[in-house]
Amino acid sequence: MDTDQLELMLLQKRLKAVNFIESGCGPIVIEVEYAEKDKVQKELIKDSQGEVVTCHNLKEGYDICLKAGIHEANLIQMDTDDEACQATFANYHREVIPLKF
Q1: DSSP reduced 3-state for 43
Q2: How confident is the model at residue 80 (pLDDT cuts 50, 70, 90)?
Q3: Which of 28, 37, 14 is nearest to 77 (CA)?
Q4: Do β-strands 15-23 and 72-78 pair in parallel, antiparallel, or remain unpaired?
Q5: Kindly report the CA angle at 83 between 86 and 37, in degrees rounded to 5?
Q6: Partners of 33 in the beta sheet?
Q7: Which phi and psi (to 5°) does residue 48 adopt?
Q8: How far apart are CA 84 and CA 80, in angstroms?
């Protein structure tokens, strides 16, 4: 999903949540949860080449979201033990820190 699709999801009221996922000392990725038919789907934000967008800090993530008209997200910090045992979209514990910007 790219930022144009993210903006469209917001306009169509299909956006359920935006999550900044931080893993240890690695970069932050942005996960989008949205309604697709009767299910909630998850995708990572990607650039025009299809590469996952990574952020070095929350400010970079805020800027991406603000450009799409989004003013809130969740910060999810993963334990590295959880990360080593999960699939592409980890079903990690959902302890979230709500953010408004």
Answers
A1: strand
A2: low
A3: 28
A4: parallel
A5: 50
A6: 17, 42
A7: -65, -20
A8: 6
pLDDT in tens, 31-66: 999 999 999 999 999 999 999 999 999 999 999 999
| Nearest alpha-carbon partner for 34 in 47, 50, 48, 19 | 19
Q: In the block, which residue shows the tokens 């592409």?
A: 88
CB atoms within 10 A of CB 83: 14
CA–CA dist 96, 22 (Å, integer): 11
Q: Show the DSSP H helices in 1-101 as ranges.
A: 3-11, 58-67, 80-84
| pLDDT for residue 24 | 76
d(CA 41, CA 37): 9
Chain centre distance of CA 70: 12
Predicted local distance difference test score (pLDDT) of residue 90: 57
CB 17 within 8 A of CB 48: no
What type of residue is 15? L
- pLDDT at residue 81 is higher than 90: no
